[in-house]
Amino acid sequence: MDVAKTPSSAKAMIVAGVMSGTSADGVDVAICRVSVGRNGVAPVKVLGHSRFAYGKKLRAMVLAAAGGTKMSAAKLAQLSWKLGEEYAACVEKAAKEHKLKPELVAVHGQTILHDADEGMTWQIGEAAVIAERLRLPVVSDFRPADMAAGGQGAPLVPMLDWYLFRHETKNRLLLNLGGIANVTALPAGGCVDDAMAFDTGPANMVIDAVMQRLYKREYDGSGRTAARGKVLEDVVRKMRATKYFNAKPPKSCGREEFGEAFVDKLIALCEKADAEKEDIVATATALTVETIVDAYSKFCWPHLGQVAPGAKATEMFVAGGGAKNKTLMRGLAEKFGALGVKVATTESAGLAVEAKEAAAFALLGWLTWHGLPGNVPSATGAKRAVVLGKVSYGG
Q1: By the 8 A CB rule, do 204 and 23 touch?
Q2: What pLDDT, on a 0 to 100 scale, did the predictor assign at position 364?
Q3: pLDDT value at residue 66
Q4: Looking at residue 385, what is its pLDDT?
Q5: Four-residue CA torsion sign, 162, 175, 113, 394
Q6: How far is CA 50 from CA 91, 122, 281, in A?
Q7: Which residues lie closer than 8 Å to 114 by C-beta, 6 or more apart?
Q8: What is the spatial distance between Cα 165 and Cα 363, in angstroms, rounded to a whole number?
Q9: pLDDT of the residue at 3
Q10: DSSP string of 122-153?
Q11: CATH architecture for the domain at 13-153+355-392
C-alpha cells in the first residue's frame, strides 16, 4: 500500500475532525491542518481542540440505542438527526473558540452497532444536517467501505499513528483508551503495511458501567475509587478467559461483546466473593490493564520481533479519556515497565490525549476528499486499501 501517492490537485486544508466514541459521553472536535509534503501527506497539526459533553437526555438516548434497547425506526431516525444538529453545533463552537475556519468536516458519528463477525456496522448522526448548518462539505460513515472489502471496519486510527509516530530505530505502540481499548504496533523502520492494530477489549466501558451501577456516577474520575479497592485476581482470571481476548487479530469489538451481559457477569463474580464496591471497580480497572498487557505479549511483541528484530527500544504512547485515570495508567506503567516498555501519554509528543481520535478522522476526511484510501488492510483485515466514507456537500 503506497500512502505517498497524492494527486497533483491535493492541497493543504483545515479540517474539523469530530469524534464521539463508545463511552457516549460527549464530542471531541479537533481542528487540524493537513498538508501535502514531499513524501505525501505531512503530519497532521492540531490547531485547536474542544470537548463537549452530551446533555443528560441525549446521552440516555444514545446509550439506549447502543445498548440494544428496542427503539422504533422513527426514534432512531430522530436520534440520528438530533446528533447531526449536535455535531454541527460543536464544530461551530470549536471554530469560534479557536478562531479558525474549517474547509471540510470529518464526522465519525455515534456507533450504535458494530458486529464485524456479521459484517455490519452503524454510526449515526445525519451528515446532511451538519453540511447544511455549517455550509461545508462533510465526510461521514467511514467504516462500511472497509467492511465491504472484507475488513473489520476498525481500527481506523492506524493511518494517523503511522504518519505521526513511526520511528526509524524504535518500535512504537499507540494505545487508545476510550470505551474500547485499541492498540497500534509500529515496527521500527517499517512501512504502513507493517502496522498491526486491533481492539484489545474494554478500556473505560466496563469501569464506567460499574461506576454507574454502584455509585450512580458516570466514571471513576482519576481512578480514586479503584485506588481504594482490592483487586480480585481470581475474578480477573475468569473474565480473561472470555473468547474475544484470545482471538487473533484482526479483530474489533464494542458493546456487543462488553456491554450489559459482560458487566453483569463481572459484578456477580465479585459479589460472590463478598467484594466491597470499590473492590469491584478496582477489579474492572485491573481487567483493562491485564487484557492490554496480554494482547501485547500474545500478538504485538511477536509481530514487532519478526518485522524489526534490531529495534533499539519499544515505546508506548497512550491517548483517550482513560489516560487521565491515574490508577489505570499506573497499572499499565508497572506492567509494561517490567517488559521493558516505556509508557507515556501523547501529551509528551504534543498531542492532547482526547484530541487524537478526532484528529485521526480529520486526516481520514482529507484523504477521502482527495480520493485516497484511508484504511490500513494489515490492521483491519480488508482485502485491499479503499477510499472511506461518504461526502455530503453543503455549499
Answers
A1: yes
A2: 97
A3: 87
A4: 96
A5: negative
A6: 9, 25, 29
A7: 121, 122, 143, 153, 154, 252, 253, 254, 256
A8: 14
A9: 52
A10: EEE--HHHHHHHHTS-EEE--HHHHHHTTS-S
A11: 2-Layer Sandwich (3.30)
Burial (Cβ within 10 Å: 0-12, 13-18, ≥19) of residue 348: exposed
**87 contacts 18 by C-beta, under 8 angstroms:** yes
**Domain 13-153+355-392 matches domain 158-349 at the CATH topology level:** yes
CB distance 363 to 351 below 8 Å = no
What's the grid cell of residue 15? Answer: 479540517
Query: CA-based angle 157:158:163, to the nearest 5?
Result: 105
**Burial zone of 94 (CB within 10 Å; 0-12 exposed, 13-18 middle, 19+ buried):** buried
- Closest among 193, 196, 200 to 258, alpha carbons compared: 200
- Kind and range of the H or E run holding 257: helix 255-258
Per-residue cell: 374: 484511508
State the pLDDT at residue 394. 83
Question: Domain locations in the chain?
Answer: 13-153+355-392, 158-349
Cβ within 8 Å of residue 137, ≥6 positions away = 104, 105, 131, 369, 391, 392, 393, 394, 395
pLDDT mean for each 10 residues of the chain (395 residues): 61 95 89 79 85 93 87 95 98 98 97 90 97 98 97 94 94 96 97 95 96 95 96 98 96 92 97 97 98 98 97 97 96 98 95 95 96 94 97 89
Angle at 24 between CA 19 and CA 30, to 5 degrees: 20
pLDDT of residue 247: 97
What distance in Å separates the CA atoms of residue 349 and residue 284, rounded to the nearest whole number? 29
DSSP of 6-71: --TT---EEEEEEEE-TT-SEEEEEEEEE-EETTEEPPPEEEEEEEEEPPHHHHHHHHHHHTT---
Query: Which amino acid belongs to residue 352?
Result: A
For the chain, give the number of residues.
395
Torsion of CA 166, 169, 175, 176, to 10 degrees: -20
* Assigned fold of 158-349: Nucleotidyltransferase; domain 5 (3.30.420)
Grid cell listed for 231: 483487586
**383: which 3 cell numbers?**
482485502
Report the predicted TM-score, pTM, of the whole model to 2 decimal places: 0.92
The confidence score (pLDDT) of residue 36 equals: 81
